[in-house]
C-alpha cells in the first residue's frame, strides 16, 4: 500500500522469445550481442546454438527477452521446425555481401512455415563496396514474406540494431493483444490465427485499447 492507501498495480513481465536464424557468418551473434550488451564483438567463437535472457523496458513495459542465437554448420543445415514452434518471433538474417546467405533465408522460410512475426535483416550494411544483394531485393523478399525489413550494420550501429529487436517485439505483443480478443484464436490457437492477423493487419484489424 502507498501512504495514500492506494495499491499500485505492478506491471507484469511479458516474455518474448526470439530466434535469430541465418547462414553461417552473416553476423547473427554480432547482432545478438550488440542488442544485449551494446558492444560489438568482432570474432565470436560459437559452436552451437546459444540462449540468452535479457530484461528491458519497451515503451515503458518490462519485457523479458529470451533470444536463441542459432549456429548452422553449413548452408545445407536449415533450422528445424521446433525453432519456429518455440519462438514468438523470428529474425531471418542475411549478409548484404553474400548472395548465398540471401538464398539461405528464402530456403529457411520455406522449410519453417513460421506462423509468428518475422523480420528480414540484411546485415553488414557498412560493407557497401562488397554488396551482392540490393536493398530493393530485400524489400521484395520481405513483401513476399509479409514481414518487416531492415538493413543494419552490427559492426557500427547500436540504436538501429536495438530498434530492430524492439520492432519485432512490438509485433509479437500486438499479435498477442489481437489474439486475446480474437474468436479465431480460441478456434485455431494463436499461431494459426497469426496467418489471418498478418493478412488483415493492413485493414487495421487491431483492437483499440
Ligand atoms: N563488416 C561487418 N562485419 C560484421 C558485421 N557483423 C558481423 N560481422 C563479422 O562477420 C563475421 C561473422 O560474425 P558472427 O556474428 O560470428 O556471425 P554468425 O552468423 O553468428 O556466425 P555463425 O555462428 O558461424 O553462424 C565476424 O568476423 C564478424 O566480425 C557487420 O555488421 N559488419
UniProtKB/TrEMBL annotation:
Q: Which GO terms describe its molecular function?
A: G protein activity; GTP binding
Keywords assigned by UniProt, alphabetized:
Hydrolase
Keyword Hydrolase present in the record's keywords: the answer is yes
- Which SUPFAM superfamilies does UniProt cross-reference here? P-loop containing nucleoside triphosphate hydrolases
Question: Pfam families, alphabetically?
Answer: Ras
Record-listed E.C. numbers: 3.6.5.2
What's its top-level EC category?
hydrolase
Superkingdom field: Eukaryota
* Catalytic function, reaction form: GTP + H2O = GDP + phosphate + H(+)
Q: Which family does it belong to?
A: Belongs to the small GTPase superfamily. Ras family.
NCBIfam families this protein is in? Answer: small_GTP
**Name this protein carries in UniProt:** small monomeric GTPase
- Source organism of the structure: Papilio machaon
